Amino acid sequence: MAEEKETKSIDQATIEMIEKADQDGVRMVFSRAETTKACPIGVEGSCCSNCAMGPCRVPLPKGKEETPEEKKKRAGVCGATAETITARNFLRKIAAGAAAHGDHGRRVAEAFLLAANGESPEFQIKDEQKLLQLALDLGIDIGDRSNNEIATDIGETLIKEFGKQKGELLFLKRAPLKRQEIWREQGVAPRGIDREVVEAMHRTHMGVDQDYQNLLHQGARTALADGWGGSMITTELQDILFGTPSPVFSQINLGVLKPDEVNVIIHGHEPQLAEMVAVVAQDPELVAYAKSKGAKGINLAGMCCTANEILMRHGIPVAGDFLQQELAIVTGAVEAMVVDVQCIMQGLADVASCFHTKIITTDPRAKMEGATHMEFNDRNATESAKVILRAAIDNFPNRSQNVRIPDNRTGLIAGFSHETINYLLGGMFRASYRPLNDNIINGRIRGVAGVVGCSNARVTHDDIHVTMVKELIKSDVLVLQTGCAAMACGKAGLLVPEAAKYAGEGLASVCEAVGIPPVLHLGACIDNSRILIAATAMVKDGGLGDDISDLPAAGAAPEWMSEKALTIGQYFVSSGVFTIFGVNWPTLGSKEVTDFLFKDMEKLYGGKWAFEPDPIQAAKLMIEHIDMKRKALGINKARERVLYDMEMRRELESV
Hints:
Elements: H1 2-6, H2 12-24, H3 29-35, E1 47-48, E2 56-57, H4 68-73, H5 82-116, H6 128-138, H7 147-163, H8 177-186, H9 193-203, H10 212-242, E3 248-252, E4 262-267, H11 271-280, H12 284-292, E5 298-303, H13 304-314, E6 318-320, H14 325-330, E7 334-339, H15 347-352, E8 358-361, E9 372-373, H16 381-394, E10 410-414, H17 418-426, H18 434-441, E11 447-451, H19 463-474, E12 477-482, H20 483-491, H21 505-514, E13 519-523, H22 528-541, E14 553-557, H23 563-573, E15 578-581, H24 591-605, E16 609-611, H25 615-633, H26 646-654
Parallel strand pairs: 4-5, 4-7, 5-6, 7-8, 8-9, 11-12, 11-14, 12-13, 14-15, 15-16
Antiparallel strand pairs: 1-2, 3-10
Helix pairs in contact: 5-7, 5-9, 5-10, 5-23, 6-7, 6-10, 7-10, 9-10, 10-22, 10-23, 11-13, 11-16, 19-25
């Protein structure tokens, strides 16, 4: 039985809490994954439920080639082919992911405007330099105007990007010129963020767009509206409002919970609530109130992507990733789990009913049966956060004796924003990506890989991420991470400089010289736009081609789960990056659609998709791609070192 449990995770804290959940009779995500099997037809995208004549299932026959006549028979009631159905489903997932990131961005833009206009006094401009740089990027006058006046113009300009009906998103101009030309040639330069999502939903309605290639082009445009729109706007405004991350040391895993303090976990994605809770948790009055209830203090920990936000800006420890949210409650030591939006399991309420933990929802868009709703108000942020914390403190005396906190926590360094990487590589006065480019050109660093995305209960928790990343850094590939992928590697000890021992000789030498880990934490899933900016900076600094598609780089989401992950993957593919996913792939029900994504898309966009569930094989595919790009750039072979004598130097000077 113990061996069976260990296959669910490679993380010891997770294994221990799964055992405790079994002993306590608690049903959670790992047990539900055993009894709730994935639909083999739905997982391949071969089921259409877009009208009441269905659902229509059109699975691909296994082990035989279809004749054209047989293919025509494999259609829905309306005649929609497997290609149309699969492409529609794929586009709908992209639209949902773009909507999630876009709605996050809109809320941040609204909070940003409240702060700029003085209507939310608790939130202030924290990064003046980035504020001014963004104003210059957007063509907003600086002059002798106040920061708040400039911020108001920025907020009003960017919030219009969501509803824009004509033209192109402003941040598309940040991409390399060649990349912009490709988008325009393909007709996928996004207009407004909301417009592309709405059009995607319209096209996938019964009886509208029935050409799978046309549907997939809209998928590219919708995803780009996220990566170079919603997500990028969010990251920029969050940095200005809450501070641009810089490297910070903290700890991760369930062992960060404390047996003698009020444990409050902040879970979700939007940082306004978490930022304010992080501030008021230090309020002497609230700490004294916690002590009056028998606790020694207040211990705040993060979960999922909110954890990444408050980790990289405040150093607040991370309790766990997506699959550990229920396990934190199983410890019996959590007084409240405070949630906002995205990746919140409904099973939390059932698990919490077995313990004393309060589940507190805070956003009107995301309520949950069995939870307590305490709405967070940006205009009255401090008092909202205090009310929530008081509720958690009041729950401390209700804690039972059934408490077991795993003794597992690992140190990690987080907060490598684009600006930080720029500074670390070049210093204050010559900040640039040139040293990174030079080390790629000279071969010390083979290339760069973004390994991002969720954790998924259909595979062994954390194993796929850690195995892939170790294989990549062993081969001198620098790894950039966000989201739950970063948490998996953090728990495995890969987000500290000492992890250079797992890296190849070349990458290790660079890490030791600069003082960075071989795996860099760049933030939450919304912050994948930082990787786009970093890739563009590499192109602009020269020596590695004139487009993102020329870079010796690849991306992966080996344990993806969320529709947001597909959107992220598609905006990387549409930006010219080879991107590989694991676990399963949602278009395998149509060979034509899959071939278009895996082959033809590269001819159009310079990037393509791939599917490989084995992490070692996936890493090898990424390394092969990186080597192919190195060869195309002519940097695949070490250049012979020539010692010049005076005659040779004179010849150079005369040229």
